[in-house]
Design a protein that fits this description.
102 residues; alpha+beta; 5 helices
Length: 102
Amino acid sequence: MLTSVNMELLRALADPLRLRIVCLLARESLCTSHLVQETGARPTNLSNHLRVLREASVVATEPCGRFTYYRLRPEILDDLSEFFGTLADTSREAANAKRPCG
């Protein structure tokens, strides 16, 4: 069943720019200026998307001087992967199950 945590995570990843950020952070930790450069997004827009990802616990921050680096929290994606894996297994098991109409 979808929990509120799963729903928040799905909402966070549903936006194309946020998903792009997650894909970039899967390869390396990046600061905001790197992400602006990579995505072409405006800094204020990017900051709003990073806030959503932080609130959904998808990314963690690491202060480094006057910069903040963002890194992906893979354990959060592991949880989501497990959810979809369980959903796929359930679907396979119920492939021939039909509820009668009427």
